[in-house]
Design a protein that fits this description.
The chain has 921 residues and is of the alpha+beta class. Helices cover 50% and strands 20% of the residues. The strands form seven sheets. The protein has a five-stranded antiparallel sheet with strand order 6-5-9-8-7, with helices on both faces. Helix 7 runs antiparallel to helix 8 and helix 10 crosses helix 17.
Length: 921
């Protein structure tokens, strides 16, 4: 074979053997380096994402703790001021309380849910946190990983982010741009899901290599679903390199073949040399030496390839230096604590990196700038540019201003220098969506490469560093203040210990005194109980004989067969019996007031009924005196009143009795009138001995008795007006007195809003409703009469039940005198037997009886349908059961107290029979 052919063949073989393997080796090594650089860049992005996610979680917790520390109401929570996306509480059934469910309008949540489990199940991208409140409740809050969060974070870390829930992609950043990556994302996640954090997976594709890193966050409370993040990027350098290599290899082979045929000996050396240089460059690059450059000895494709390779190395070096500078900047920020240290270190690093000589850092408070550090010239000599709108736009609109001046240069002046600024960059430092600072750098020359990209890259970290430094300064002051307060607390604690010892000694003494007081209290309660029992017993024992004395005296006095002289004697007996009864009643009433056993019992009654009962009570007192007793009221009107009838009657009887007692001649007038405000007033006027100023001051005190001009003491215990004063206060009123010696006295009492209705005397409906038929007469003499409606029906039977024979006899005489048929029973057993024999219309039933008392008897009566309708009126002399509501609850229709008043008894029975008649109809 000829040598030239052999040379050609050898050259051709060498070209083929050398070009193809060397191209493959170059391709593999360079591709590996590119992939290594790409994976390192992606790992840095993953670290940045982890840091940003953790920072966001911490900001959410800090925002809520700050809100709780200010003791704010949940209803006042403002989402626009913090990083919290939603907030809600649970009610007592552990269901979501929608009254306190709040979220940002821009956040998409499934919130029409009842349970916490359903909330976290249907909102898997909601990062849930909770806080135990001081009131025992729990507040759930957090933020939502949504499209906006992923897009913003992706921009900041310069990589794409995929939220993986239950091994499936849930959200992808920049979804429009990354929509075609879903299949690759699923494949990458399946390769990485069983690997550790920050392990990466690489897929080579023609449109760019996809490198993905898995990140599994810790300490995130979400649903039962598994949350992971996939951080990935597409790097086109490797794919472009492979495409270029395919072209280059093809060109090398073709060119080699052609050159081997034409210029084998000439070009073989240069090709081999160029390949050798390229290989050497690849080896150096593989070792991490990015400063080595491929010497270009040929102007063919290999030379262009070398130039491309050198350009690629230059770009990788710039990226490496940028990443290194960013990492160094973060390290510098994290190493400093104070605000001045962070400002000076960060400014020096920025100026060194950008090659600038002048710069300044400002803090923004209330939209005003305050310089914290300047570089290149003294702070006090630094003058701002005349255009203040630059800084206003930066602070208020968060705009970055980059200016290159051709004329009208800003000037930095000192005592010896005047520096014209040709380039100015003013950038906002944003933390938590607020401008907290401003970075300003300047140069007297226009830079070849703008530092804007670098400044944007470090501005977020610089803002975080300044904010942390500021917080650190505040924390230092706070710790110092806590230390000072702790020292004061220790001093106060020592004082408290000393005072505590004194308090313990005092407590021991007080406990001994309290024990003594408790013993005294027990004795007092026992004495009060004994006193109450004694008064109740005495009430019964005193009133029972008075019942016969007064009742029989009235009957004999009204008997036509009684001679006038005996009638006069009986009037004296009746009058003194009434006085004795009034004295007993006053003593018992005062005893009940003193023991606290009283209350206001409202009821509806007629004014005429009240005045009739008052007249019946006071009539025997004044018949032996030369006085006129007048009851003044509109003769054509009657009033329906709502008040405590017993207490009002007690007040008026006492006032009228006193007026009669202290008036020997003249008149005593009782006036009832209504004013325009529907108030009811009672006035008791007399023409008696009157009162002086000193007497008016003391008449309402207990046991005070007044004397007349003849120095004669009047009868009584001195309790009547004291009781009247206390009862008037219970009715919401007071008793007023106007008097002069020897000119009589006027007592007045006004009840507020006491009149329910004004009734014409001719209107019988209200009387039928109340069960009475009174005829009220206004008189000017000694008679005020109430006449009962005459019944044309047959006599009605009244059953009287009492264990006291005198009472049976007295009541029987009164009823026979009123023309009723009477039956008697000595106890409850006999009462039930009598009811079966003769069905009475009304039963007068005593309370305290042997064998079966009144309460058990009424219970038996009401339980029998055959005679449960019978009207039963209680007869009692017991002071402690006069409360009408107790008797009504037991089944009684009404109450008559002993001693029995003839007129009251007649009115009660008449009313009962009227009610029975209406019921029958």
């Amino acid at each position: 074979m000829r040598i030239n052919i052999r040379i050609l063949l050898i050259t051709f073989s060498l070209i083929v053997l050398i070009s193809i393997p060397s191209s493959y080796v170059y391709y593999k090594i360079t591709n590996s380096i590119i992939q290594t650089q790409s994976s390192n860049a992606l790992l840095n992005s993953s670290n940045d994402f982890a840091f940003l996610l953790e920072s966001t979680l911490n900001k959410v917790k800090e925002d809520f703790k700050e809100f709780v520390a200010e003791n704010k109401d949940l209803n006042t929570f403002q989402f626009a001021e913090n990083n919290i996306d939603f907030l809600f509480t649970l009610d007592e059934n552990n269901l979501i309380n929608h009254n306190y469910f709040m979220s940002k309008p821009s956040v998409e949540l499934n919130y029409h849910l009842k349970t916490l489990e359903s909330f976290v199940e249907l909102n898997p991208n909601a990062i849930l946190q909770f806080e135990n409140m001081t009131n025992g409740g729990v507040v759930f809050y957090g933020f939502v990983i949504d499209q906006k969060f992923l897009d913003e974070t992706s921009r900041r870390i310069r990589s794409e982010i995929v939220l993986i829930i239950n091994d499936l992609p849930f959200l992808i950043s920049n979804s429009v741009k990354t929509n075609s990556d879903q299949i690759n994302i699923i494949d990458a996640y399946n390769k990485l899901k069983f690997k550790n954090n920050y392990d990466y997976h690489l897929q080579e594709e023609s449109r760019g290599d996809l490198i993905a890193v898995i990140y599994r966050p810790k300490d995130i409370i979400s649903s039962r679903s598994k949350i992971n993040f996939l951080v990935y990027s597409r790097f086109t350098e490797a794919s472009e390199f492979r495409a270029t290599m395919r072209v280059v290899v093809s060109l090398i082979i073709v060119t080699g073949i052609l050159l081997s045929l034409i210029f084998a000996m000439v070009f073989t050396v240069k090709i081999r040399k160029q390949i050798s240089l390229l290989y050497e460059a690849v080896e150096n690059t593989k070792k991490g030496n990015l400063n080595f450059r491929v010497p270009i000895i040929s102007q063919d494709e290999l030379g262009h390839f070398g130039e491309s390779y050198n350009a690629m190395l230059e770009e990788l070096k710039i990226k490496e230096e940028t990443e290194k500078s960013y990492s160094e900047f973060m390290a510098i920020i994290n190493r400093q604590n104070s605000l001045d240290e962070v400002a000076s270190a960060s400014m020096e690093k920025i100026l060194n990196t950008t090659g600038f000589k002048f710069g300044a850092l400002y803090m923004v408070e209330n939209k005003k700038l305050s310089m914290i550090y300047s570089a290149g010239i003294e702070k006090e000599l630094l003058e701002h540019h005349n255009d203040k709108n630059i800084y206003k736009n930066v602070v208020e609109k968060a705009e970055t201003i980059e200016l290159q001046f051709e004329d009208n240069y800003p000037v930095l002046r000192s005592a010896f220098l005047e520096i014209k600024i040709k380039y100015l960059l003013v950038s906002p430092l944003i933390y938590n969506k607020q401008v907290i600072g401003v970075l300003e750098i300047a140069s007297e020359h226009n830079p070849g490469i703008t530092p804007l990209q670098y400044i944007r890259m470090v501005s977020d970290q610089l803002a975080i560093g300044l904010n942390n430094a500021k917080a650190f300064v505040q924390l230092t002051h706070f710790v110092n203040e806590l230390r000072r307060l702790n020292e004061e607390y220790l001093k106060q604690n020592e004082q408290i210990k000393n005072q505590n010892r004194e308090l313990i000694e005092l407590h021991t003494q007080l406990r001994e005194k309290a024990k003594e007081l408790e013993e005294e209290k027990t004795k007092a309660v026992e004495l009060t109980h004994v006193k109450s029992q004694f008064l109740a017993s005495m009430s019964h024992e005193l009133r029972t004989p008075l019942n016969s004395i007064i009742g029989l005296t009235e009957l004999i006095e009204h008997d036509q067969a009684t001679i006038p002289k005996n009638k006069d004697r009986l009037k004296i007996v009746l009058r003194n019996g009434k006085r004795l009864l009034a004295l007993i009643n006053n003593i018992l009433e005062f005893s009940k007031i003193e023991s606290g056993k009283y209350e206001v019992k409202q009821s509806n009654f007629l004014l005429s009924d009240l005045l009739n009962e008052i007249y019946s009570s006071v009539e025997p007192i004044y018949f032996d005196k030369e006085i006129d007793v007048k009851f003044s009221v509109d003769s054509k009107k009657d009033f329906l009143i709502n008040s405590d009838k017993n207490k009002l009657e007690h007040i008026l009887i006492n006032l009228v009795t006193n007026a009669i007692k202290f008036t020997d001649s003249g008149t005593v007038e009782i006036i009832a009138k209504r004013d325009i405000k529907n108030n009811l007033s009672f006035v008791v006027k007399d023409s008696g001995i009157g009162l002086n100023e000193e007497q008016i001051k003391i008449i309402f005190e207990e046991f005070v008795k007044l004397e007349g001009n003849d120095k004669r003491k009047h009868s009584g215990a001195g309790l009547g007006l004291a009781i009247c004063k206390k009862y008037a206060a219970l009715l919401g009123s007071e008793i007023k007195v106007e008097s002069q010696p020897q000119r009589g006295a006027t007592f007045s009492l006004t009840l507020q809003n006491a009149i329910l209705d004004v009734i014409s005397i001719t209107d019988k409906s209200i009387y039928n409703f109340l069960g009475v038929s009174p005829v009220l007469e206004t008189t000017t003499n000694k008679s005020l009469k109430v006449t009962a409606a005459k019944s044309k029906e047959i006599k009605r039977r009244i059953l009287v039940v009492d264990d006291d024979t005198d009472t049976l006899f007295t009541v029987g005489e009164i009823l026979q005198n009123l023309d009723y048929d009477i039956s008697f029973a000595g106890n409850g057993v006999e009462c039930l037997s009598q009811i079966e024999k003769v069905l009475p219309a009304v039963i007068l039933l005593d309370i305290m009886m042997p064998q079966m008392d009144g309460f058990e008897t009424i219970k038996r009566i009401r339980s029998n349908d055959a005679y449960s309708h019978i009207c039963v009126i209680a007869l009692t002399a017991h002071a402690m059961i006069e409360d009408k509501h107790i008797l009504e609850q037991s089944g009684f229709n009404d109450l008559i107290t002993k001693p029995i008043d003839r007129n009251i008894l007649q009115n009660k029975i008449t009313a009962a029979l009227s009610r029975e008649k209406r019921t029958t109809k």
